[in-house]
């Protein structure tokens, strides 16, 4: 399965905080997902990943908030990024 990298970005929020976006287009869906994307969206504070959205093989689309993990519904990339942005803003308050 050959993946095509669409985006890989790291943005610094402040001296102790950054977020990363990694997104690939795949010829077939990752097992557990229904769309042709592989992604990882992560918020890191003081070296700890406090928020992550990803679609791990077999687990499908899900998010990690601290130590808690829960399934999410993927509808569009735009909705995924919006949800991550909302959770990121909430986590940084």
TrEMBL record:
InterPro entries: TumE-like (IPR045397)
Protein name per the record: DUF6516 family protein
Species: Agrobacterium rosae
Upper taxonomic lineage: Bacteria, Pseudomonadati, Pseudomonadota, Alphaproteobacteria, Hyphomicrobiales
